[in-house]
Amino acid sequence: MSLTRDSAEASRRGGRSARPRGGVDMATLVGLAAAAVVIFVAMASGGSLRAFVDPPSLIIVLGGTLAVTTASFSLSDVAIAWRDAGAVLIHRTSDPRGVARQVLLLAEAARRAPETLRNVLPELKHESFLHRSVTLVAEGLPPDDIERMLIGEVEASGAGKVKSAGVLRRASEVAPAMGLIGTLVGLVQMLGSLNDPSSIGPAMALALLTTFYGAVLGNVALAPLAAKVERTAEEDALVKTLYTIGAVSIARQENPRRLEMLLNAVLPPGKRIQYFDRDSDRGSPRGA
Tell me, what DSSP letter sits at residue 95? Predict the structure, then answer.
């Protein structure tokens, strides 16, 4: 049995492959780029762009945001959060319906010939969690042990992503606050130098640009990335939950039709499948 061949056949019948689709997340990039373009046009239409460049303001906002965020968490938490933020820009997604069909293909194959699971392991290396799940089943571990191990891994992975989103969310809150602090610093410098007109301009620039930098960093960059990490965590948890349900069901040697009901109970209403369609014998595609 070739899972790749059967998955391709299911795809031709109206389904989608469960193989993760890698590539740039266009929604994130387009959204961030559009916001940057709008801000850039507004800046350029009013005069020189150099007026919006102030190194002391950048140091206060960027350095202060990083320092306060790190103080709120740990160095490893902050490093992982930035890594996860970069990962959402190139996110490998799996279609939940394709995942459910793949699980049912495995269940049908294992029901006909249990040794099939070992044969398809090389084809599953593109999805590490599925590969581990099928390996546990193929090695004959008790279903309850498989369920505990896989659920624990799903929860641990989800908790890590939630923490990363929390770090980014905290940074998005700190950035505008650092901008306000920079504004106060600039105002104090300006009021203390009223007798020197040449120093009023730089102090005013510091006062205004730190607020600008903080607002842009917090609301245009960090907050959307935090939301994206949260959504990615939800999508990954759904896919891994489907794999967990499938692995436990196969280990218990349950009827694939019951497995289909269990999978549909987890899938969102718009993503539910009809793998064992009553009309399939008359040529209706599975999962239509």
Answer: -
pLDDT in tens, 58-71: 999 999 999 999 99
Which H/E stretch holds residue 25? none
pLDDT digits over 205-250, tens only? 778 889 999 999 999 999 999 999 999 899 899 999 999 999 999 9
Q: 3-state secondary structure string, 130-186?
A: HHHHHHHHHCCCCHHHHHHHHHHHHHHHHHHHHHHHHHHHHHHHHHHHHHHHHHHHH
Contacts within 8 Å (CB) and 24+ apart, 67-72: 68/174, 68/177, 68/178, 69/167, 69/170, 69/171, 69/174, 72/167, 72/170, 72/174
Strand partners, 93: 21
Name the pTM for this structure. Answer: 0.78
| 63, 179 Cβ separation under 8 angstroms | no
Q: Where are the alpha helices (DSSP H) in the chain?
A: 3-12, 26-45, 55-58, 64-72, 75-87, 96-112, 116-120, 128-138, 143-191, 197-216, 223-251, 256-266
Residues 6+ apart with CB under 8 A from 84: 161, 164, 165, 229, 232
Q: How far apart are CA 272 and CA 284, in angstroms?
A: 16
When the pLDDT of each residue in the chain is averaged and rounded to a whole number, the result is 84
- What is the rounded distance in angstroms from the CA atom of residue 54 to the CA atom of residue 39? 17
CB 35 within 8 A of CB 220: yes
